[in-house]
UniProtKB/TrEMBL annotation, chains A, B:
Coiled coil, from the record: none
Protein name listed in UniProt: GntR family transcriptional regulator, phosphonate transport system regulatory protein
Residue span(s) of domain HTH gntR-type: 1-69
PROSITE patterns, sorted: HTH_GNTR, PROFILIN
Pfam annotation, one family: GntR
Key word Transcription regulation present: yes
Superkingdom in the source lineage: Bacteria
GO molecular function annotations of the record: actin binding; DNA binding; DNA-binding transcription factor activity
Keywords of this entry: DNA-binding, Transcription, Transcription regulation
Species the sequence originates in: Paracoccus isoporae
InterPro entries xref list: Bact_HTH_transcr_reg, Chorismate_lyase_/UTRA_dom_sf, CP_lyase_PhnF, Profilin_CS, Tscrpt_reg_HTH_GntR, UTRA, WH-like_DNA-bd_sf, WH_DNA-bd_sf
GO terms under biological process: negative regulation of DNA-templated transcription
CDD domains named among the record's database cross-references: WHTH_GntR
Length: 233, 233
């Protein structure tokens, strides 16, 4: 095994043992290079490999930090936020910042298979895991199919339960599109991450009885979440 | 419909008609605001909505640009790069920068279900669509199962064909993990994007006869590719 791989394995084991905790800064490059008796180039090779794995991340000018163990969030036809997070042994939460009923734009119309200008309920908020923000979401619902959703959301903690109260007993996810984005100032503040940090952007369509009912866009803080697909399932 | 939605719809239609082409800069904010007779705040609401849809992107200090229509890349158990891109009506390509046989690190060992230090072939390169780079890839293969892969790769343009030449007639994708990342200088140069731009990072395991043969990490330029999941399939 090469020198940098040995260093990466040592640091990986130390992180696994809890010697370096999530959010903590590693010692400066020069100090680590001296500890392992290598030059900075070799050391950087090791820390870059660990960053590639998601164990470390660097903040420009501030150093290299240990990433929190991300939640593995499984995507699939029957994805539900609360159940997914609970299955991972973590505590799910959602807070809704605003519910607005308004005319939809062209992209929303296309996703929901309605006409531009038709009414939608737009729900914006933050999803949490273990009481820390992990994602911003914007869900847009066909308001003609779900006239009472805003009232139901006020009474229920969960979108799934609010939909059930509106007569949508079941729904499935038809499609998910995935891109990446870079957090702007406002997203960074709400997610408690650094501006310019990486976000996974997922866009999904939920369908009930063959009709699209919800188009959801979620901006996930990549340092806290990994989306997982088990293709055989 | 609100004012900003009307502006967004107008710009969206103009982009669809080809009036603003991929890579071109929109007129300055003040000029666009004047054209629509709105203030900059309203205009920015519209351009931000189009950026959220992936139609526009901004470069700090340089303005707002029209994004190229991204390739939709479908993930699934039977994903193959060449076939996937061809099905989208585009021209696939791959160039291999290096093939190295070396000891694997702990993360590679875990993914391939072998021991740390066991030999792997590491293949690094660039994937292209329509002769433009869309992704960097690093594929690591179990070298004990595929001793002749480096030779086969030299003779074949495609990894799928090289695997076939090594006796792997078929393989399936078992799992994909998705994160986001921010392009560093070297990734940006190779992908011909701006440093700090968003990357989708996918990590997948390919399996043949129940044994993991390949762990692939791909860094996709998000402005050029959207990963798509059709959950019902």
């Amino acid at each position: 095994m090469s020198l940098w791989q040995n260093i990466a394995d040592t640091l990986r084991a130390e992180i696994a043992r809890g010697l370096w905790r999530p959010g903590h800064r590693l010692p400066p490059e020069a100090a680590l290079a001296a500890r392992f008796g290598v030059n900075r180039h070799t050391l950087r090779h090791a820390t870059r490999a660990l960053a590639d794995e998601g164990l470390l991340y660097s903040r420009r000018g501030a150093g290299v930090f240990v990433a929190a163990q991300p939640v593995e969030y499984r995507l699939g036809e029957r994805v539900r936020f609360h159940r997914n997070i609970e299955l991972a042994g973590r505590v799910p939460g959602r807070s809704i910042d605003s519910v607005a009923t308004r005319a939809c734009d062209a992209a929303e119309a296309k996703a929901l298979n309605i006409a531009p200008g038709d009414p939608v309920h737009a729900v914006d908020g933050v999803a949490t895991v273990d009481h820390r923000p992990v994602a911003l979401f914007r869900s847009v619902f066909n308001a003609r199919l779900l006239p009472d959703l805003p009232g139901a959301l006020a009474g229920q903690g969960s979108i799934t339960r609010a939909l059930a109260a509106c007569g949508i007993a079941d729904f499935i996810r038809a499609r998910t599109l995935i891109k990446a984005a870079v957090a702007d100032e406002s997203q960074a503040v709400r997610l408690q991450i650094e501006p310019g940090g990486p976000l996974i952007r997922s866009e999904s369509i939920d369908v009930s009885d063959g009709r699209p009912i919800e188009r959801g866009i979620v901006w996930w803080a990549s340092e806290r979440v990994t989306l997982a697909l088990d293709h055989g399932d």
